[in-house]
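Forwarding the complex inputs:
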Amino acid sequence: MKTSDHSPKSAIKQPGKIAVWFLTIYDIYRFIIRFFKEALLPPYEFKEVMRQCYEIGYRSVLLISTTGFITGLVFTKQSRPSLSEFGATSWLPSLVGIALLRTLAPLLTGLIAAGKVGSSIGAELGSMNVTEQIDAMEVSATNPFKYLVVTRVLAATITMPILAFYTVMIGMLGSLLNVSINEGTSASAFFQSSLESITFLDITASTTKAILFGFTIGMVGCYQGYNSSKGTEGVGKAANASVVIAMFLIFVEEVVCVQFFSFFIT
Amino acid sequence: MQQKELTDTNREKVIEIKGLNKSFGDMKVLSSANLDLIKGENLVVLGKSGSGKSVLIKIIIGLLKPDIGMVNVLGKTVDQITYKELLKLRLRVGFSFQSSALYDSMTVKQNLEFPLIRNQRSLTKLETEKRIDEMLDAVGLLKTLNQMPSELSGGQRKRIGIARTLILQPEIMLYDEPSAGLDPITCIEINKLINDVQERFHTSAIIITHDLTCAKEVGNRIAMLVDGHFERQGTFEKVFNSGDEQAQAFYNYNFIQ
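Prediction (whole assembly, two chains):
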């Protein structure tokens, strides 16, 4: 149930800053637990999840295509001088492939989605909160958490790995363009060389990170929007906080994931 | 048209509120409020802005929790039932928002469809469409079916909000400031609609307002919320002919101004 009574601020009388911090952490914890509970229990909103997946993908695909292509192209161009010193420009495809798959693609996709999708989720739910649309769902015997939060978080979690792999492909095309102009490498040789160096662990690490980033973007956006303060200022704050917090968490998760997966990479 | 007071000790109480208290921080909004809603009546709750009228109906529908007191709706104590039971209870209690709260990314049809397809899954597509047409016809806005809420006037939005609430065929209607922000002609139309809903769907209703014309037109009984509790209850005449200063001030403000 979404009630203002359950907000951490009203739980105790005039709590201090530390108490508010702990209460907020507890509130976030409850929000995450509720997500898993609601996601697992029927009824399921498959149609809405699919619609959200389309929205998230559609909203970010152009930006991701552009930045992915430029990243692949620029990364190749910047790496060439160092590799050519050792006469190792033939390693460019595998270098770009590994770099894109392991880190650049999930991170880039995550950051773009945090800005594009996270802010949009935060603003949309915030504005629904301000205009009592969430309360209207509550009183019409519909669980707004299931319809609004679960669907968006699931959609972001599902879509992010797909977008990350799409970024890898687009980035490789950017790299291919640069490599074929400078070294005259054919597309088949380029892809063969880059795919040869990619391991199953790289794919696992990349997918795990993308799923984690998607979940974070969806969760942060929904939490900020769903709990936004009333008024137009609240909507702006929710959108802003959705981007800033999601981006920060993405970097933290990147560090943790890199550390974790480095144990398995020899 | 002012209707007869339906108060009768033998009639079934659909809402029973006893000793209700609600505060926000240091601000006490409701204090030992007692109120009953009798089956089939339109009860108007009058009070100044910020007197806790909207808080009262939000507690009734379970959007807010009371600090102390008992709120019994259709035999269920609202703050003591599970969320699942609360959702079931909400199927029987409609809530019309002051702001209409229409889903702005959906058309009128989708707004009405939304609660229906989630709560009455056995309905066929044809039955759903028939029910939507029926409700839009009841509020006189059949031609707005494919319009977006942003394309509607304030009065139309209110009507669609009421239609969306009625689509689940509730036994109780809670109207939050139904005539707020509307011109006098539209106010008359909304008042007529509230009376039509009572007649056609046999609903009991609590109407929150500070508009005495609305109160006079739609209320079988008036309850005045003063300092967090109900001071005067009865027919419009009984409340405003009591010679009470606060009631008189309210009357003067609405009619003499």
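The first helix of chain A runs from residue 8 to 11.
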